[in-house]
Amino acid sequence: MKPLCFVLMPFGEKVDHKGRTIDFNEVYEVLIKPAIEACDIEPIRADEELLGGAIHTPMFERLILCDYAIADLTSLNANVFYELGLRHAIKAHTTLPIFAFDTDLPFDLKMQRTLPYALDETGKLTAVEKDKARLIEHLEYAKEHKHTDSPVFQLIDGWQISHNLSHEKTDVFRKQAMYENDLKEQLSDARIEGKEAVLKMMEELKPIKEKSVGVIIDLFLSLRGIKAWDEMVSCYNAMDKPLQKTKMVREQLGLALNRSGASEKAKEVLEGVLKDYGADPETNGILGRVFKDLYEKAKKNGEALKAAGYLKQAIKSYKEGFDADWRDAYPGINLVTLLELQGDDKQLQQYLPIVQFANKRKMESGQPDYWDLATDTELFVLGSQYQQAFETLSEAITLIPPNETWMLETTLKNLNIILECRKEKGNNDTALAELIEEFKKYS
What we know:
Helix content is 64%, strand content 7%. Helix 17 packs antiparallel against helix 18 and helix 19 runs antiparallel to helix 20. The strands form two sheets. The chain has a five-stranded parallel sheet with strand order 4-1-5-6-7, with helices on both faces. A two-stranded antiparallel sheet has the order 2-3. It is built from 23 helices and seven strands. The protein is of the alpha/beta class and 443 residues long. Helix 5 links the parallel strand 6 and strand 7. 38% of the residues are buried. The longest helix is centred in the last third of the chain and has 21 residues.
């Protein structure tokens, strides 16, 4: 995905302090937008109604999330100055103020690094190509050097801002998100009522991009809970582009695409996240699931060579995710399950105790959730400890949120993989088959 540049500026024709009527739409279309696009960056311009009135949550989100920002200060517009101040408070670099060369800027900004452009006495651009080239030069410099241009970050040593918008764990993000209480309650009620209620809520929340990040994410994950994969993709498409670019949203898009049958597209999305952020238990875990599903599809179709290749890729993805952070047992349990399937006893014996230790430490450090207990269940099955597996999974299903049975289905899918693997090796594991049958009724 291309980086984004948020453009803060007036809209339409405005009269400046010299009495000139300036067509800011023309300034944007002729000068600013082409320069941004020439740098392989995607421009996003603020909505006119937001600049003309109250600044809504989406404005703040764009200021935080966009990789770059250009602020046109020519009209001395109060909203633009306010937004520039916010940007400087939360972003150390990649913010570029511009102005008509003869604008009398306020004192605080005269000392900042700003870029002038030429206008004549009638408010028309007079040196478009020259000014465009300079704007491109400054943007390319910002891309390459990440020079600190915020006066706040320049003056206050150690100033840091944490934007918890790429949180690794989506369910934690949902619980911690701050958003309107009434919508929170409505979405919670809809999840309990079921699929139709959540889909109705989705319609009521349109246009989605105008809602706060917390509401959008809660809706996004509620759709995941009811297995509305196509609607999840539609929700993603309706989001503001800066929110679409966040790591967590892209991960969940990959999950939804895979579950909807678009595995190749899911692979492309998740590999893009890995390229941007590196190996990660969450991303690699979801990508591993994509390869695992492709493996099962190829095997079902009798494509043995292709199935072997996908199995190898799934193991590689889970291994890279677990190696990135051994504290997260999610990719680890999938890794050891597939290692048994592959018949790689050497690596299985190497990783099995590490996964067991990682999951044990996680459960001891706090209140175990469904995935902790589900992981423990699979580990007990791998060790043929069926009574412990039954007891653990019995406890796990009590922790599944209303209408989120996909969680148990994921666990049963892994247990079926182990069962089929053992059957192929001549081990008719009746105890495991009985455990699976017992818990199918809850999925």
